[in-house]
Amino acid sequence: MKIGIVGGALQGMEAVYLSKKAGYETLVIDRREEAPALSLADEAVVGDVEKERHVTEALTECDAILPANENMEALVAVDWIAEQAGVPLLFDLDAYRISESKLRSNELLQRLGVPMPRKWPSCRFPVVVKPSTGSGSTEVTIARNETEVERLVLHLRGEGLEPVVEEYVNGPNISIEVIGDGSIFTPYIVTDVILANDYDCKRVYSPWRGMAQAADELARYATLTARALGLRGIMDMEAIVLDGHPQVLEIDARIPSQTPAAILHSHGINLVEEMVKGLVHGRMGTPTVPQPRVAVYEHVVAKGDTLHACGEGEFAHVRHPRIVEGLFGADEAITDHRPGMDGWTATLMMASPNWAALRERRKECLRRIMDENHLSRYLDLFPEGYGDPLTGLSDDE
Ligand SMILES: Nc1ncnc2c1ncn2[C@@H]1O[C@H](COP(=O)(O)OP(=O)(O)O)[C@@H](O)[C@H]1O
Ligand SMILES: [Mg+2]
Questions:
Q1: Rounded distance from Cα 372 to ligand 2 centre (Å)
Q2: What are the pocket residues of ligand 1 if the criterion is a CB atom closer than 6 Å to any ligand atom?
Q3: Residue 59 CB neighbours (<10 A)
Q4: Is the Cβ–Cβ distance between 224 and 109 less than 8 Å?
Q5: Ion ligand 2 residues within 5 Å by Cβ
Q6: 19-43 pLDDT, tens per residue?
Q7: Which pLDDT tens digit goes with each residue over 321-355?
Q8: Could you name the CATH architecture of 2-91?
């Protein structure tokens, strides 16, 4: 099985990592030569999927195509290439067109009766002002009064972006993936998304340790939404848990980054393999996991004397990363680390039989990184009111 992955940034790294773990041959295409996923692939092609023939030809030779980018023109081009060449596409362009816009997807979610944060002005302050399109928490800001809302709305409009203004809800951030083949829709594992101080995701725990009832509710909403979309591919749904119930923030019908790798380490479920099973081999189904473990997936940057827990946005700058087993005691890392180097980055992944064991393992791994790289400070910043359920608010013990 050869997978053609289009896009070599964060989603591309996830896609190539999972494809390799599934034992597939990988091709990654990106027009930027420095795109980090290129160095992880068996075959790297630099070029533009919209214009360049050698790119189209390379894709035509694959057994499945997995778009891993959020550029509409590129996605339309890949959809067309896959259709022309008769290569299975692990992506649903129609569903993506809805999920790409929070205004459009909120309309759908509302119609389906999925609970969401109340929209301004029929809610109290503080509110969150964010662009309808875009991802990775770009331009997500809190406003505490009407003047601030107006200023932020004007700012977004000035950038050519449509604003969404909704109640700020404070609680655990959780996420789930669903895979569909157009008629069967399988929800997977609910994970716990830990935010950096800029609301970017810096760490994922799998599974979420919270109430089973809230997790089941999210799985139900995600399945309902996938069915309404007639999803043929993967989507994720993200929510904040308020008073024991998920309030849905958004859906995204494309391979996400971070959460699938966490699920692979905790449950051994590979979402790229699941897509291939369902969409290429026509074998949709729910995998059985007799003995799930618990896992953490997180990004760190070492610079000067400091080890910094960072969001994936910062990790996107990693240069020529490679997959390393056992780095500093983690199960696996995706990293550009070399001994003696300053300014390196790593995504650390590790799993344990239970949370107490994971907590110790993670602590030991961070301690080893600090010791072996002569770092004296560990910085792990959260948005106001949030923390890390595994370690408590400050992580300096
Ligand atoms: N209504 C809200 N209340 C609290 N936090 C929010 C709200 N909306 C967004 N956020 C925070 O901002 C992050 C990014 O918002 P999201 O709607 O997921 O947009 P993006 O498409 O950028 O991921 C979320 O993960 C969440 O932490
Ligand atoms: Mg989001």
A1: 35
A2: 117, 128, 130, 134-138, 140, 166-169, 173, 195, 199, 238, 240, 249-250
A3: 22
A4: no
A5: 238
A6: 999 999 999 999 999 999 999 999 9
A7: 999 999 999 999 999 999 889 999 999 999 999 99
A8: 3-Layer(aba) Sandwich (3.40)
